[in-house]
Amino acid sequence: MAMEKFILTPELGRLVKWLRILGFDTLYFTAKNISSLVITALREDRIILTRNLHITASPGIKLFKVKDDMVTDQLTQIIAGLGLKLDQAKLFSRCIICNAELVGIAKKEVEGKVPGYVFKAQEDFSLCPTCNKIYWSGTHWGNVKDTLKEIGALN
User: Fold this and answer.
1) Nearest-angstrom CA–CA distance, 52 and 56
2) DSSP H or E stretch at residue 50
3) Are both 143 and 119 inside the same structural domain?
4) What is the residue range of 125's domain?
5) Is 22 contained in some domain?
6) pLDDT single digits (tens) 8-56
7) Which of 2, 16, 1 has its CA nearest to residue 66?
């Protein structure tokens, strides 16, 4: 079963990062042109997530209005409201900067490209093939999982 894909409007910037952390293909639409937003959503079969009151549902458009202010509350609302199923294997599988799918990279390839203590402490690394950012499972992994457990999104 394919995971949902999203396109978010500018007022949901923090949520973009979180959805990418969860492994969802998430575009951040910062242009002012609502028509372009709708066209992109339709063309790429994406759900529009917004707090913008001027964007209204039309036939064929998947639209979800986010009501909450806090990002954890927004996640709770979206997961419940859309019936999303989180796949732990997909956590941290996308670049939080550009949305590309990450690929594994050999430890020897990152030497000198990550802090020395990280190189010594970590064995597994991922690379964004688009923006070349290198990722590893630091303390933020546990923090994210704790937050997801806290909001009832992970068992």
Assistant:
1) 9
2) strand 47-50
3) yes
4) 103-150
5) yes
6) 999 999 999 999 999 999 999 998 889 999 999 999 999 999 999 888 8
7) 16
55, 15 Cβ separation under 8 angstroms: no
Query: HEC profile for 58-78?
Result: CCCCCEEECCCCCHHHHHHHH
Residues 140 and 67 in one domain: no
CB atoms near residue 27 (< 10 Å): 19
Cβ neighbourhood burial of 60 (10 Å; 0-12, 13-18, 19+): exposed
Q: What is the DSSP letter of 113?
A: T
The set of residues, in sequence order, having a beta carbon less than 8 Å from that of 137 and lying 6+ positions away, is 92, 122, 124
Does pLDDT of 1 surpass 80? no
Residues contacting 132, CB < 8 A, separation 6+: none
